[in-house]
Amino acid sequence: MKSAKSKQRINEMRTPARSKQNLATTERDPVQVYCRLRPMQRETDISCMKIISCNTVLLTPPSTALSYRNENTKTMKYTFKEVFPPETSQQEVFDKVALPLVEGLIKGKNGLLFTYGVTGSGKTFTMTGEPNNCGILPRCLNVIFKTINDFQAHKYVFKPDKMNMFDIQNEAEAMLERQQELHKFKLGKKNNSNPDLAMSTSDLTKVDGVNEDNQYAVFVSYVEIYNNSVFDLLEDGPPISKNLPVKIIREDAAHNMYVHGVTEIEIKSAEEAFDAFYLGLKRKRMAHTNLNAESSRSHSVFTIRLVQAPVDEMGEAVIQNKNVLSISQLSLVDLAGSERTNRTKNTGQRLREAGNINKSLMTLRTCLEALRENQINGTNNMVPYRESKITLLFKNFFEGEGQVRMIVCANPRAEDYDETLQVMRFAEMAAEVEVAKPQITDIASAIGLMSGRRKANRLFTAARDNMMRPEAKELELDLGLVYSLGPDFPSLELNSSQAAHIIKELMAHLEMRISRRETLKRSKAVKDERLRSALLELEKESLEVRSENASLRGQLAASERRVRALEERLTKTENASLSHQRKLNEMTEYTSSLKRELQEKELLLSQNKIDKEKQKKVLERKYNHKIAAEHEKAKEINSEKERLRNANEDKENRLRIIAEALNIDKRDSVDTVPKMMGDMAAQTCCRDFTPGSTPRALPAHMLTPFSSVPHTKDTPSTSRRGVAVANPRHRRSLSADGRGWIEHAPNKIVPMGTVMKPSIGHSKQVNKLTSVKDITNSKTSKYCLISQEQDTDGELETKLYKGDVVPTCGGGAQVIFNDVEMLKQFSPTRKSNSARLSENTCARHSSKRRDTGCSPPQTPSNTSKKQRVDDD
Ligand SMILES: Nc1ncnc2c1ncn2[C@@H]1O[C@H](COP(=O)(O)OP(=O)(O)OP(=O)(O)O)[C@@H](O)[C@H]1O
After folding, report:
1. From the CB of 129, is ligand 1 less than 6 Å away?
2. How many domains in the chain?
3. What element of type H or E holds 406?
4. Closest residue (by CA) to atom 1 of ligand 1?
5. What GO CC terms are in its UniProt record (predicted)?
6. In testing the pocket of ligand 1, which one of 37, 124, 406 has its CB within 8 Å of the most ligand atoms?
7. Cα 122 to middle of ligand 1, angstroms
8. Which of 435, 754, 773, 849 is the most exposed place for a label (fewest CB within 10 A)?
């Protein structure tokens, strides 16, 4: 019965104290923020920070700072829990900041300590330290082991259950595991410790608060958050491995966040702890940057979990009940430093790392701001812990109970001012966030265990050991009966007359013993009865528990299977999401690089455009002058044309007069015409022919064409590009050679007799080739395509494209053009013919007339020109 009750009491004690209702009523402590200034690197460096009291610093903007340029020249004052000047020793920082957290850890309280600051400001120096000058972390390990050393449980008594809790194993199970480990150890184990680091922590400090009736075990895990992915630095594998698998963060049954599947090593001494720490340290991603020779590229979280459980009534073994366990944790976090890329000049991987570092620090800031708002205004707005892995891990501390401390590391040199200002603002804001004070319950007394059990056991063991010693054999010690039948028997010697008195006494003594025996017998019978019923009760209870246990086991197995399946799915999803995230990042980078390229090209384009505009303006100015000059020339040419047109009209009028005169009765006009002709010819020749030539009358046949084609509106004789002058005569082309021709004439051909057109004998004229037979016909051996059009001067131009018709083997025919004949007609009346032609024509006519003594050629008004182009 007692065990059931105590079990219930234990369960009541273990109810998670992290529910929101509980937190609302619990006391709260603000996050304690400390500031540590690092020494200046160079004597020439200028400081922008000044310590004015043990907890206040002044920050003055140097003239080089961005904010100074933005006219923010104000000196700012920042207050901390304590400010550590550059000369402060590592021990002093540890004592003031970390030692209380270690004390809390031993008492069962959670603690978080993180260093925050700009890159190169001394975060890693403060947290890890250097050989022979170690930092907070090794000192914490040292003090913990110094304190709990005498009260450690045997290894593997406590065993992580992989769900952020612990199982308790009995001594036999634990021993078996130890033996297995010993076997493995013999097979070969590497020593990872850094002797310098281990040696430098020979500190003998112990803290108060250890419970002597408890057994303790220390477990450590070490993870890093790199590019927002969690990696286990203690995972089995090669000591320097950059390809560790990504871990996921989960929430346990008590709403604590933990890294699922993380390696938790049980540590039995500070040296073993240094081994583990040093192994992780070697794997941690560090790199050289412009601002720090060994810069952390990731956030590292070293977690110390202290498991404690009360010993049983005998003060020997741990109570075999999972619910009596008390687990406290101290997380020591070395955050990567914020960095401005224009100062670090990082590129590629370093730039990506810096981006992720700054982003996660930004999320931390956002979370704390949201938390503070909620606490001040009593609101319940969502705090974006999930946006970054580091804040998700920290959720434990801010939403639950514990102590949170932050050391703001600062480099006081002026170059760091802008970043330091941001750090100081963050620190100021973080100091306003409050965390619930941890509530500690003494589980042992809650289940009715008296304190001092272990001490009593120690004394008892010592006494027993003493009794075993040979000199103790002389001692009369009765460690046996607790129950007795009364005092010793009186003396039984009957040596005097008062023997009857003795017998009476003996009888009374015996009666007293008999009655006492009876009493004891009755008491024993009652107790036996009670024990029997208790045993029966227990048996019944045990049966119930067993059946309950069996059904629970079944349920557990089913849920474990389900959990495993879900875990697998979760891991797959996480991995997929991670790879998508990576792809997204790559695409984002690629897009931004393309954007940059586009911008550059646009810039180039607009530059080119501007250049071209300039050139265009220059050319415009240049050509405007030229165009103006051309206009001038065109005007002159037009006026010249006008003059020539007038002259032509004049000439045509005169010729018309002559033609009219010729229509008068020839006999009547014999006397008058020569006179008129003479006058006209004299006028014309004087104007058109060379100055030295004798003016002569034009013969009548020269005038015939003009008289036969009346001057109408449709054929304006003055237009340069008018319809070609009709010629009633035509000249036969040289192409007419008497063979069978096919003439391919255009549809709208100028009527015969008005336009020069070759007449080809034995030819068949078609306007359109409609049938193949037109060509394949055996009589047809030649092909002529005729085209007529006006040339640029308005003269009629006839082109004859001539070719041989060659039969093909498929029964068809092909035409191979091999000659082009061009017939062109020039009118002597047209001044529009090029100057050269008109002059030549006039010159030729005049010379011919001179040579033949006024006997004109057959077609004086027409000049035919043939061009032959022989095809290759
Ligand atoms: N208080 C100090 N006393 C002496 N040296 C210091 C101190 N603080 C920092 N240093 C030195 O400054 C250098 C940079 O320090 P550290 O690596 O700790 O910077 P960090 O803030 O961790 O940088 P990051 O964020 O880039 O990792 C180290 O060489 C360290 O020894």
Report:
1. no
2. 2
3. strand 403-410
4. 38
5. kinesin complex; microtubule; nucleus
6. 124
7. 3
8. 773
Binned at pLDDT 50, 70 and 90, residue 322 comes out as: confident
Q: What DSSP designation does 96 have?
A: I
CA distances from 363 to 124, 251, 349 (A): 21, 20, 21
Ligand 1 centroid from CA 231, angstroms: 24
**Ligand 1 atom closest to residue 125's alpha carbon, by position in its atom list:** 18
Average pLDDT over residues 804-828: 80
Instruction: State which of 243-252, 301-310, 506-515 shows the largest mean pLDDT.
Output: 301-310
- CA dihedral of 828, 829, 834, 839, whole degrees rounded to 10: 50
Q: Kindly state if the Cβ of 717 falls inside 6 Å of ligand 1.
A: no
Ligand 1 within 6 A of 115 CB? no
Strands 82-84 and 111-117: unpaired
How many helices (H) and strands (E) are present in the chain, helices listed first? Answer: 22, 29
**CB-ligand 1 contact for 684 (6 Å cutoff):** no
Q: pLDDT tens digits for 824-867?
A: 766 665 544 444 443 443 333 333 333 333 333 333 333 333 33
Ligand 1 atom with the smallest distance to the CA of 294 is 17
Task: Kindly give the residue spans of alpha helices, DSSP state H, lying in 160-300.
Answer: 171-187, 195-199, 270-283
The mean pLDDT of the chain is: 76
Pairing state between β 403-410 and 111-117: parallel
What pLDDT was estimated at residue 307?
94
Domain with 845 in it: 702-870
Sign of the torsion formed by the C-alpha atoms of 543, 549, 554 and 555 = positive
In a domain? residue 586: no
CA of 410 relative to ligand 1 center, distance in Å: 10
Q: How far is CA 463 from CA 452, 457, 458, 469, in A?
A: 16, 10, 9, 10
Residue 356 lies in a domain: yes
Q: Which amino acid is at 483?
A: Y
Ligand 1 touching residue 791 (CB < 6 A): no
- Structural domain contains residue 392: yes
Residue with more model confidence, 803 or 869: 803
Give the ligand 1 atom nearest the CA of 38: 1
Tokens 């498929």 identify what position? Answer: 810
Between the CA of 91 and the centroid of ligand 1 the distance, in Å, is 16
Between CA 129 and CA 143 the distance in angstroms is 16
Domain ends where: 429, 446, 463? 446
Residue positions in the annotated binding site for ATP? 117-124
| C-alpha 123 – ligand 1 centre gap (Å) | 6
Ligand 1 atom at shortest distance from the alpha carbon of 286: 27
Domain presence at residue 485: no
ipTM of the complex: 0.97
Alpha helical stretches, state H, 664-737? 666-669, 672-688, 700-708
CATH number of 291's domain: 3.40.850.10
- Distance (angstroms) between ligand 1 centre and the Cα of 405 equals 19
Please tell me if the CB atom of residue 300 comes closer than 6 angstroms to any atom of ligand 1.
Answer: no
User: What is the H or E stretch that residue 652 is in?
Assistant: helix 499-663
Calpha distance 154→159 (Å, rounded): 11
The DSSP bridge pattern shows strands 326-334 and 111-117 to be parallel
Closest ligand 1 atom to Cα of 126: 18
Model confidence band, residue 161 (pLDDT cutoffs 50, 70, 90): confident
120 CA distance to ligand 1 centroid (A)?
5
Long-range pairs, 185-189, Cβ under 8 A, ≥24: none
Euclidean distance between CA atoms 543 and 541, whole angstroms:
5
Q: CATH no. for residue 718? A: 2.60.40.4330
* Cβ of residue 346 lying under 6 Å from some atom of ligand 1: no
Which atom of ligand 1 sits closest to the CA of residue 37?
1
Closest-lying ligand 1 atom to the alpha carbon of residue 336? 25
Dist. CA 295 → ligand 1 center (Å): 9
